[in-house]
């Protein structure tokens, strides 16, 4: 039932954004077909990232570790690496002038508590210390996790992420009042903890037309470009102290 509520709200958001362009009935049919299509991406995208992680384990060079949910998996884009992670990797490699190897510890459907319970321990268990760690989580929590539980969980994430890691605010478009509350905590408490903040909220406002997959919930590649821009802004122009082992500190977006 909770998943259905999330999907209905996402549908309403896109219906409101597209009034005058498509009939409601056609939009709903598109939603149903799109939901099936994005669900079919979950397993192959996860396998593709697992293979990328195996390659990273066997390769020299700077390592980037990704924490998060289906957005970090690229669900909604036409390929696993066409989401914000793949697009951001292109930005980073273009600026640094050398390849970055990536281990994607995210999982579709993950909530903030899953980052604490499984993804952060997996990060700590990596045989190589990543030079970059990013985390975007919370979208699946907004209609399902009470704020009295969600805020303390975000504080756990803030305290556990390594110095120089990048933590994203929640994007616009879903339970905005609750998202603002969580974002206020992130903006106030992440920088003093030595983290950088990728301000997804500032980069994901309307108009949304043309930025969502056919399930009207996940971004498509165009929408994920806004996510990549938010992370690039935080990584390439850091406001917090950069990780001491990172070579990102000398870069800045023009």
CATH architecture: 3-Layer(aba) Sandwich
Largest sheet: 5 strands, parallel
Find the CATH superfamily.
SGNH hydrolase
Across the major sheet, the strand order is 2-1-3-4-5
Task: Tell me the β content.
Answer: 5-15%
The third-level CATH topology is Rossmann fold
CA radius of gyration: 17 Å
Number of helices: 10
The number of strands is: 5
CATH class: Alpha Beta
Task: Report, as a whole number of angstroms, the end-to-end distance.
Answer: 46 Å
**Tally of individual domains:** 1
Low-pLDDT residue spans: 19-25, 238-245, 249-254
Shape assignment = globular
Structure commentary:
This protein has 254 residues and is of the alpha/beta class. The protein has one domain: SGNH hydrolase (Rossmann fold), CATH 3.40.50. Helix content is 50%, strand content 8%. The protein has helices at 2-17, 24-39, 42-57, 70-73, 84-96, 112-124, 147-160, 176-189, 200-203, 221-236, and strands at residues 63-68, 101-104, 132-136, 166-168, 196-198. Strands 2-1-3-4-5 form a 5-stranded parallel β-sheet, sandwiched between helices. Helix 7 (147-160) links the parallel strand 3 (132-136) and strand 4 (166-168). Helix 5 crosses helix 10 (221-236) and helix 6 (112-124) runs parallel beside helix 7. The N and C termini lie far apart (46 Å). Residues 19-25, 238-245 and 249-254 have low confidence and may be disordered.
Annotation keywords:
254 residues; alpha/beta; Rossmann fold; five-stranded parallel sheet; 5 strands; globular
Which helices and strands occur, and which strands form pairs?
Blueprint: H1 2-17, H2 24-39, H3 42-57, E1 63-68, H4 70-73, H5 84-96, E2 101-104, H6 112-124, E3 132-136, H7 147-160, E4 166-168, H8 176-189, E5 196-198, H9 200-203, H10 221-236
Parallel strand pairs: 1-2, 1-3, 3-4, 4-5
